[in-house]
Write a structure and sequence with these properties.
The protein is 41% helix and 16% strand. It folds into two domains: 191 residues, 3-Layer(aba) Sandwich (Rossmann fold); 162 residues, 3-Layer(aba) Sandwich (Rossmann fold), CATH 3.40.50.2000. By secondary structure, it is of the alpha/beta class. Helix 1 crosses helix 7, helix 1 crosses helix 15 and helix 3 packs across helix 4.
Length: 389
Amino acid sequence: MTVIRKVCVVTGARAEYSLLYWLMRDIQASRILKLQLVVTGMHLSPEYGLTYQQIERDGFTIDRKVEMLLSSDSDIGIAKSMGIGMIGFADVLIELKPDILVLLGDRFEIFAAASAAYVAKVPIAHLHGGETTEGAFDEAFRHSITKMASIHFTSTEAYRKRVIQLGEQPERVFNVGAIGVDNIKRLKLFSKTELEKELNLKFNEKNLLITFHPVTLEFSTTEEQFATLLKVLDNLKDTNLIFTKANADTGGRIINRMIDSYVVLNSKKSIAFTSMGQLKYLSIMQFVDGLIGNSSSGLLEAPSLKVGAINIGNRQLGRIRAESVIDCAPTIEGISSAIGTLYSRRFLEKLKTVKNPYGKGSTSEKIINILQKPEKFFRLKKSFYNLCS
């Protein structure tokens, strides 16, 4: 008789759902695994596009929704949202009784889910552990989730070693590559003509995709840094600016208000999206001259499309990057110089042979094979792996 293992996937943000899409599809297709889906965070917020509706349009059944009441992006507001989320996840885990909880990344919604699951004795499978983002409080959340998780799926061998450094047993830590690369390999991206029609957008001679998020471990830098970026972008000639809005991080609303104001005043050369979905996002990425901001997608996915990324400031500090990434300070001089490099002949030649350090895809398939292993593989009790002994 086939053993059914209930695998509960939690998603709280549009980008995270896009990364988990193929894994969820492959869980559905498994004869051993049964998908449970819990939606929370920005997916349930009108301000961020009620993106749970897209999840349903994609054919997934949402088993439970956990409200976190994202009415504030202040420090205290986020902390209170986490508390409300933990209460909701506690109820959901009792009702669904999953055999394993799948969590990706480091956001505060995911930390709340992990905390509730750990106390409820639900084993956790964690994706993208061992990474470092020294400019965001996601850094501490990520490493905390690692210590609560029973099994780990890292995106590079260096990150696998870091998870082991945190005391996790090597036989529980698997380097499977970045799951976002699966989207590039498995999605049928739009052609330029299809994309222009889909978005009601006409590409210009030059085109840039801008994705900027708050640096949550810095005080009051968000508005100043984004204003600096807008000032540089405003001086570019014959260039379309395609903005994606910020997540529900501390200070995210400041960025989104500034984007809205800028697009109103510059409607002929700029457009903004609250949520465009991974298909449209990657389709745009393949046709732009570069990605500008501080999004992890510039480091994890853009190299596979041979697209350059300008990484501004400290949010992604410490992350492994390909030669397609141009790091710069959040200053007029730094950003201007990076844009010059982006369009330079030498850099464009280098892009042709760039390799993505986050793998070549098939990540979901590797994860499924491990999730189907015998139950003893996911035991809650674990001993600390001491590198000093």
